[in-house]
Write a structure and sequence with these properties.
Largest sheet: none
Radius of gyration: 21 Å
Shape: globular
Distance between the termini: 24 Å
Order of helices and strands: HHHHHHHHHHHHHHHHHH
Number of helices: 18
Strand content: under 5%
Helix content: over 70%
Length: 481
């Protein structure tokens, strides 16, 4: 595969994990983009009730499209833009994505009705699908493989988790003290700062492939992922057995199966199957899906627990996630050293183990009180989660040529947006168990029983992932290292 440039613009000392002043500024720019997109999802979720009242949404179902309208294009277009970044240049696509995100955030903040807000949210989702893979790919350009890249990815993972916590806490503060519109306008300010940093600090010597764009593969991947995420996002409301949900799932299976067949025969596939067949890639993506799906789902469960069982306000609920955010930040700061000392496989397994134990112990959260246990278990979950995220992204992006780093960046981000599958599965467990307990106990205890069942399930899935990492990744990663 031909490339137009192979020059690296790396900052700092190659033999250490020191990033250097310019390296820190470049990392701050890339992490700012990650923070911006992560903040968007959580801050909007908190502001939904106020948005519904202010813009006169018809019902809760239509209001949910404020979130879904952004998620659908982000997840479905991720493979396309991952490949486009290798064709047109990562810097060019990244800056375009950041600029568009800022513009659509401004339009969202100025929306005068449901239709204009949802249209702006779609635009934000498209822009986010351009930012997500290129931010990771640019990190691999700025920080070549080794301790500095691992440290950069660690800080990025911590910032992403911190964006969720700050969004949950800050969304309540902003909505209560100012207006929901400021949740969007703040994204505009961050976007402008990130864009300025990208133009001033990030390397423009893009590695660009001369391959043709795989149009059939792009269409099939987009349709398949769109149908899958649509079914997951709307299944609970429409009914998992409804025609729309079942039809979407069938379409997803057909389109994604056809995508794999097309990729086998296309001379320049959207996602080369050689990459997907790499043990370090396919197993890391699966483990990433486990940690992101179970952590995201468990965070939703914790939110329900704090509000529906303990009776916390939205602001107090946001504060309840502080332990998770702080331990995530600590894990991100120390992930590079842990990986260097113990290796990627051991770190992935350990991260899933800590996440699994912390999540499983949530089964002991009581009907009243239990703040210490809440903070300890959510803190353990956050620490193990970020440790796993940094390790699996480092594994996916290791050992690949420069002109495939855009694809690798997209694959590393895909589990984040498909994590809604885990949330939907855990929510279904809560519903089923709560209904089973409802005839014999109070509604609060029935809800708590459902949450306990789902939390225990999430913990067991993470523990199974820890074993899977040791079994499936040990030999391939050892050989790669």
């Amino acid at each position: 595969m031909a490339v137009t440039s192979t020059q690296h613009a790396s900052y700092g000392e190659a033999t250490t994990d020191r990033l250097g002043a310019r390296g820190w500024l470049a990392l701050l720019t890339l992490c700012g983009a990650t923070f911006m997109t992560g903040l968007d999802y959580s801050v909007v979720t908190v502001a939904l009730p106020e948005i519904g009242r202010n813009l006169h949404f018809a019902d809760t179902g239509s209001l949910q499209w404020v979130s879904t309208a952004c998620l659908l294009p982000t997840a479905s277009l991720l493979p396309l833009f991952s490949r486009v970044s290798d064709l047109v240049g990562r810097h060019r696509l990244f800056t375009a994505g950041v600029a568009l995100f800022a513009v659509f955030s401004l339009l969202a903040g100025l929306a005068i009705g449901p239709a204009t807000l949802i249209a702006a949210r779609v635009g934000q989702g498209v822009a986010a699908s351009m930012i997500a893979p290129t931010a990771i790919a640019l990190m691999t350009t700025v920080f070549p493989e080794g301790p500095r890249r691992t440290r950069a990815l660690g800080i990025n993972g911590a910032v992403l988790s911190l964006g969720f916590v700050i969004g949950t806490l800050g969304g309540g503060v902003i909505t209560s003290g100012l207006s929901w519109r400021w949740t969007m306008l703040i994204l505009v300010i961050i976007g402008v700062l990130v864009l300025a940093g990208a133009l001033a600090l990030l390397p423009r010597t893009d590695v660009r492939s001369r391959a043709r764009l795989d149009a059939p593969g792009a269409v099939l991947a987009t349709v398949g992922l769109f149908a899958l995420v649509y079914a997951i996002s709307t299944g609970a409301q429409a009914g998992w057995g409804s025609a729309s949900t079942a039809g979407s799932l069938v379409l997803a299976v057909v389109a994604l199966s056809a995508f794999l067949l097309v990729e086998r025969r296309h001379p320049d596939p959207l996602i080369p199957l050689a990459i997907l067949n790499r043990a370090t890639v396919k197993w890391s993506v699966l483990l990433g899906f486990i940690t992101l799906g179970m952590c995201g789902g468990s965070s939703v469960l914790l939110s329900l627990y704090m509000q529906d069982v303990l009776g916390y306000s939205a602001l107090a609920t946001g504060a309840g996630f502080l332990a998770e955010g702080l331990t995530a930040l600590v894990a991100g700061m120390f992930a590079a050293r842990i990986i260097e000392r113990f290796g990627k496989v051991a770190t992935i397994s350990t991260g899933l183990l800590v996440q699994g134990v912390g999540t499983a112990l949530m089964v002991f959260l009581p009907e009243h009180g239990g703040l210490v246990l809440l903070l300890v278990t959510s803190g353990a979950m956050g620490f193990g989660h970020v440790l796993t995220v940094v390790s699996f992204i480092t594994t996916i992006t290791s050992g690949l040529p420069d002109d495939e780093q855009g694809i690798a960046g997209g694959l590393s981000q895909l589990p984040q947006f498909l994590g809604a599958i885990g949330t939907a599965a855990l929510a279904a467990i809560v519903t089923a168990r709560s209904k089973a307990l409802a005839p014999t106990t109070t509604s609060t205890l029935a809800t708590l029983g459902g949450l306990h069942a789902a939390m225990l399930t999430a913990g067991i899935v993470c523990l199974a992932g820890a074993v899977l990492a040791l079994v499936c990744l040990r030999r391939p990663v050892a050989m790669a290292n």
